[in-house]
Amino acid sequence: LPTKRANEVKNMKKILVVGAGCILMTGLLLSCTTQNLAEKKAQAEATRNLGEAYLRQGKYRIALMQLKKAEEMIPSDHILQDDLGLAYLYLKEPDQAIRHFKRALEIKSNYTPARNNLGNAYVEKKEWDKAIEQYKMVTSDLLYGTPQFPLSNLGVVYYELKEYELSAQYYLKALDINPEFVQALYGIAKTYMEIDRVPDAIVKLQTAVGISPDSAVLHFELARAYALDRQYTKALNAYHKVAEINPSSTLADRALI
Question: What is the pTM for the complete model shown?
Answer without folding.
Answer: 0.81
